[in-house]
Amino acid sequence: MATLGVILLCLLAGMTYVQGRIEARYDDDSEMSPEIKSIVRRVNASKVVNNSKSVYLAKLSGKSSIFKNLYCVRSEYLSYGDDNKTTYRTLEALFKNEEDTSSSNTSIRVSANISLQVQRNEKIYPQILIVNLLNNISGLLPNTSGNDFAVPDKYELPVMYAAGQCLILRNSKEGPDSGCSLWIPGEYNTKPPFCCLFIYAFMCE
């Protein structure tokens, strides 16, 4: 029965997005049918955010040149603050080093600690994941251009889909043109679940 529920959630999320309903309901979910409401209430970012295992960035869409040579991103669990409902994790990224002209293929490593809070508001969908950088990485990022924004300390990322197998985040609250990211817990890293790839393809590609 649980498997059937996950499959139904995948199909409904995909079909709802194709019909343009999800984006339209960012500001008003009053027209959602009871069936859709019961489905989207099951979207829970905490299942991945609070995962004690490694979490990997599996897919990323967006126009920033910061993404150009990004090839590996991993997050490790640190702790959970029950008093403020906040999860603390590391965030480590590897970039190809364009300035290295040798054959050694060196990389640039950028790491930071982050805090994450799942924000529930009056709207049923989407949840918002509040991500705070706990140390400054602005001067560490390679391949930045004048068209890129300075790295902010706080991000508010709409949760497009979340289950135990994956987390799909919008890159900003500005809408679909901002791109998305797909995060996968370590046990699914080598083979992302079809459901997650299916929804990501509809929402982000």
Keywords:
205 residues; Calycin; Secreted protein; signal; eight-stranded antiparallel β-barrel; disordered N terminus; alpha+beta; Lipocalin
Describe the overall structure.
There is one protein chain. By secondary structure, this protein is of the alpha+beta class. The chain has a single domain, classed as Beta Barrel (Lipocalin). The chain is about 20% helix and about 35% strand. It is built from five helices and nine strands. The protein has helices at about 1-20, 20-25, 35-40, 45-50, 195-205; strands at about 55-60, 70-75, 75-80, 85-95, 105-120, 125-135, 155-165, 165-170, 180-185. The protein has an eight-stranded antiparallel beta barrel. Helix 1 runs parallel beside helix 5.
Strand order in space, largest sheet: 1-2-4-5-6-7-8-9
Number of domains: 1
pLDDT below 50 for ≥5 consecutive residues: which ranges?
1-8, 11-26, 145-150
Task: Look at the helices and sheets and give the structural class.
Answer: alpha+beta
Q: From the coordinates shown, what is the CATH architecture?
A: Beta Barrel
Number of separate helices: 5
- Strand tally is 9
| Strand content range | 25-35%
Mean pLDDT, as a whole number? 76
Work out the radius of gyration: 18 Å
InterPro entries: Calycin
Keywords: Signal
Signal peptide: 1-20
Protein name: Secreted protein
